[in-house]
């Protein structure tokens, strides 16, 4: 059971990293297009900036979940490292507990936010529901919660994980 869960989390981690990477790539194309259309074509496009903001929202929540699993998030461990071993474990347990609470908060209130704004539209994208734009909040919270469960139940990803893979190229 643990092996199957770890395998699923490995796949979910890869999805998060891929989505975050694609968001960055598309943003690097969209923003220059907005600048080009404004200053070279002398007729600015209305969609590049809001699209970049939407992509940044997706990037933020996908990358935040991936960073948590990879233990690459911003964390202050100075205090925990100065504690005796028993207190250090307690402090780390408290961090996991608080992160789980935050993730559940994101899921519960994020779903309510999505439902409340579902029938509103974005001016630049009248076919896109505002609720869809808030969807990364509960989804990111759920994914982070799954990674927290993995960390507490199984432990951090081992050295064979994609998390520890060196970039090639």
Question: Could you explain how this protein is built, in words?
Answer:
The chain has 169 residues and is mainly alpha-helical. It has six helices and two strands. Strands 1-2 form a two-stranded antiparallel ribbon. The chain is globular. The model has no long low-confidence stretch (mean pLDDT 91).
Keyword list:
169 residues; mainly alpha; two-stranded antiparallel sheet; 2 strands
Blueprint of the fold:
Layout: H1 2-39, H2 48-70, H3 78-82, H4 85-117, E1 121-122, E2 125-129, H5 130-134, H6 136-153
Antiparallel strand pairs: 1-2
Helix pairs in contact: 1-2, 1-6, 2-6, 4-6
TL;DR of this structure?
The chain has 6 helices and 2 strands; from the N terminus they run H-H-H-H-E-E-H-H.
Percent helix, as a range, is over 70%
Q: How many domain regions?
A: 1
Low-pLDDT residue spans:
none
The profile of the biggest β sheet is: 2 strands, antiparallel
Helix count equals 6
Mean pLDDT across the residues is 91
How far apart are the termini? 35 Å
* SS class: mainly alpha
Rg on CA atoms, Å: 19 Å
Shape: globular
Strand line-up across the major sheet: 1-2
Strand content: under 5%
**Secondary structure tally: strands:** 2
* Element order: H for helix, E for strand: HHHHEEHH
